[in-house]
């Protein structure tokens, strides 16, 4: 099936692209479903279930909601601390640039 794209205007091309993307997603979903069916049939023929082969549903990792104790303290302002996780705070960068070492800012 050949389509002469030169005859399409901008809006028609965008519409064609959107339709093509939708169809592409449908085809991928169909292929995945067919593959899943084939795998399930093979597993059933061998006398097993999906849970036997792959285990139960994967559990989500628990997110830690606890507060982490601070590891570093700003020598210029004792109110400012940092746990050592995530992005370094500005005061930490400034202290390092001023010649301090990480060990100097550790909370002991």
Structure description:
With 108 residues, the chain is mostly helical. Strand 1 and strand 2 form a beta hairpin. It has a two-stranded antiparallel ribbon with strand order 1-2. The longest helix has 36 residues. It contains 4 helices and 2 strands; from the N terminus they run ααββαα. The mean pLDDT is 89.
Can I get a quick summary?
With 108 residues, this protein is mainly alpha-helical.
Please tell me what the overall shape is. Answer: flat
Count helical runs: 4
What percent of residues are in strands?
A: under 5%
SSE series:
HHEEHH
Poorly predicted regions are none
Going across the major beta sheet, what is the strand order?
A: 1-2
Largest sheet: 2 strands, antiparallel
Distance between the termini: 74 Å
Helix content percent band: 40-55%
Helix/sheet category: mainly alpha
The radius of gyration over CA amounts to 29 Å
Mean pLDDT, nearest integer?
89
Count of extended strands: 2
Keywords:
single chain; 108 residues; mainly alpha; two-stranded antiparallel sheet; 4 helices; 2 strands; 4% strand; flat
Could you give the topology of this structure?
Elements: H1 10-45, H2 50-54, E1 72-73, E2 81-82, H3 90-97, H4 102-105
Antiparallel strand pairs: 1-2
């Amino acid at each position: 099936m050949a389509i002469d794209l030169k005859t399409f205007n901008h809006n028609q091309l965008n519409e064609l692209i959107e339709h093509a993307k939708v169809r592409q997603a449908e085809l991928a979903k169909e292929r995945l479903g067919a593959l899943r069916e084939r795998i399930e049939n093979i597993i059933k023929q061998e006398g097993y279930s999906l849970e036997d082969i792959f285990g139960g549903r994967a559990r989500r990792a628990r997110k830690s909601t606890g507060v982490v104790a601070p590891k570093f303290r700003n020598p210029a302002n004792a109110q400012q601390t940092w746990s050592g996780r995530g992005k370094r705070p500005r005061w930490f960068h400034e202290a390092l640039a001023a010649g301090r070492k990480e060990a100097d800012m550790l909370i002991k």
